[in-house]
Design goal:
This protein is mainly beta and 173 residues long. The chain has one helix and 14 strands. The strands form five sheets. It has a four-stranded antiparallel β-sheet, with no helix packed on it.
Length: 173
């Protein structure tokens, strides 16, 4: 079945609608890890074909993706579509939790909020996504000391957030 989507009067996209793909045998929720880079460190973004990227991001000399960390079970990625008269936007939100408190962590998070980022996520099924493609993400982190020793977590709840015109592509590199 062919469908057409009209975001504007004369802008018509044709695509094929098919059955949903078969349900995978293993479909674990959650993310394993993430990496990030300030957007200004990127030289070239690879092309997207059918929502998949198969070439690596090209960085400026001396730069690469940086490793992030989140407490197990706290790392999450959501992607929500909101339709409007201009065709709509996808809202991306990556949340996690960095335990502890130190001047190193405070300085890192203060520096990270001064720029926008490109982020890779890897889920528990080993699917990798590139989030912030042509629409880099903002970073924020909120500290909580916890109240009850041995029960509450002490550290930073952090987020990368942003919006773009398409879903975050699968990143098969």
């Amino acid at each position: 079945m062919m469908c057409r989507f009209e975001p504007g009067i004369f802008n018509i996209h044709l695509f094929m609608i098919t059955n949903f793909p078969a349900n995978p045998l293993a479909n674990m929720s959650g993310l394993q890890l993430f990496s990030f880079s300030p957007y200004q460190n990127i030289n070239t973004l690879p092309a997207i074909a059918k929502m998949k990227i198969i070439a690596p991001v090209v960085f400026k000399a001396g730069y690469s993706f940086l490793s992030g960390y989140s407490t197990i079970g706290q790392l999450n990625f959501t992607e929500k579509f909101t339709n409007d008269e201009n065709g709509g936007l996808y809202s991306w939100l990556i949340t996690g939790y960095a335990p502890g408190d130190s001047d190193t962590l405070v300085n890192l998070f203060e520096e990270m909020k001064t720029c926008r980022h490109l982020v890779t996520t890897v889920d528990n099924n080993r699917v990798k996504r590139l989030v912030g493609y042509n629409a880099p993400l903002d970073f924020s982190a909120d500290y909580d000391s916890g109240k009850i020793p041995g029960t509450d977590m002490r550290g930073y709840a952090f987020t990368f957030s942003g919006q773009g015109k398409s879903r975050a592509p699968v990143y098969n590199v």
